[in-house]
Specification:
about 325 residues, alpha+beta, Fructose-1,6-Bisphosphatase, Chain A, domain 1, D-Maltodextrin-Binding Protein, domain 2, 7-stranded mixed sheet, 5-stranded mixed sheet, about 30% helix, binds 2,5-anhydro-1,6-di-O-phosphono-D-glucitol, binds manganese (II) ion
């Protein structure tokens, strides 16, 4: 076991990371710590979901016309409350809010922008299946002050940090600042995230594919052939699909494999969201040695034109994603 494992808390780890950047002020450290704080609150709420009148719909819908679950609203509020008062951010954008989220007038503005999917896998909340939170951090380009929508339309390559939290049999936070990927498990007895998965790397090739095969008839023949060929191998790939992107991604990061949510006739631009889902996980997977594509280009090279843009998202082990691209480019 790595000597750091089981002893380094997230705070200690972030502090050690900060020392690699002599110009660092500690501001960024505070942002990550606050995201971890929101994650603990969400984790606690998720764990008591069955008994605390927090299951079910919230009688509201989000910008995408999807019914919001009470936990969607709770998680969104906690992320905003954890970050809006620091004096370090100039704005936020969430999957759950139509426009960008301004920093209240009473707080000073800083140079960072945070984007998030507060609760990923909403359809799995009521059935006690893993769900998650996804986040990304950028620096504001140009003049300081309050953020405007165009500040959020940066290429994914400009992320300075990204990560996710998975609320599963244990709660884990996995993040990168562009110097590798590290995973922390929440020790509920002391309420601390503890380094459990240092220097995470995704296997170069996996044996798992994750896609909603109910959409098979809506895919192009090239995508159908790719999947059929995975099944026809002497050692066929295993199908694993949870329906929570974070959970499917996390499993494939550890075991190797490919996750696909391509465009289909119902979702011609794909279903998943570029800013809140695809960019952060693409940034993270590249740091772990994997790849993410929309079929024609690396996800991180896309320049968004709106904050709620959707994208075909294929992510995972490098050689598997290379194969997929070959099929769809032929
Ligand atoms: P969200 O709950 O944040 O809206 O995201 C749901 C996403 C993602 O978690 C998952 O991969 C995908 O939707 C599942 O979609 P299908 O039910 O169409 O397979
Ligand atoms: Mn999501
Ligand atoms: Mn969501």
């Amino acid at each position: 076991m790595n000597i750091r494992t089981g002893f380094s808390t997230l705070s200690r780890f972030i502090l050690a990371e900060q020392r690699h950047y002599p110009e660092a002020t500690g501001d960024f450290t505070l942002i990550l710590e606050q995201i971890a704080f929101a994650a603990k609150l969400i984790s606690w709420e998720v764990n008591k979901a069955g008994i605390a009148n927090i299951l079910g719909a919230a009688n509201s819908s989000n910008i995408h016309g999807e019914t919001q679950q009470k936990l969607d609203v709770f998680a969104n509020t906690k992320m905003i409350q954890a970050l809006d008062h620091l004096g370090l951010l100039c704005g936020m954008a969430s999957e759950e809010d139509e426009g960008i989220i301004p920093i209240p007038d009473k707080y000073p503005k800083g140079k960072y922008l945070v984007v998030f999917d507060p609760l990923d896998g909403s359809s799995n909340i009521d059935v006690n299946v893993n769900i998650g939170t996804i986040f990304g951090v950028y620096k504001k380009l140009g003049v300081a002050g309050e953020a405007c929508t165009t500040d959020f339309l940066q290429q994914g390559r400009r992320l300075i940090a990204a990560g996710y939290v998975v609320y599963g049999s244990s709660t884990m936070l996995v993040y990168t600042t562009g110097r590798g990927v590290n995973g922390f498990t929440l020790d509920p007895s002391v309420g601390e995230f503890v380094l459990s998965h240092p220097d995470m790397m995704i296997p170069e090739r996996g044996k798992i594919y994750s896609a909603n095969e109910g959409n098979f008839e809506r895919w192009t023949p090239a995508i159908q052939k790719y999947i059929l060929d995975l099944r026809k191998r002497d050692n066929p790939y295993s199908a694993r699909y949870i329906g929570s992107l974070v959970a499917d991604f996390h499993r494939n990061l550890l075991k190797g494999g490919i996750f696909l949510y391509p465009a289909d006739t119902k979702n011609p631009k794909g279903k998943l969201r570029l800013l809140y889902e695809a960019f952060p996980l693409a940034f993270l997977v590249e740091q772990a040695g994997g790849r993410a594509t929309d079929g024609t280009q690396d996800i991180l090279d896309i320049v968004p034109d709106s904050i709620h843009q959707r994208v075909p998202f294929i992510v995972g082990s490098k050689l598997d994603v290379d194969d997929y691209e070959r099929y769809v480019k032929e």
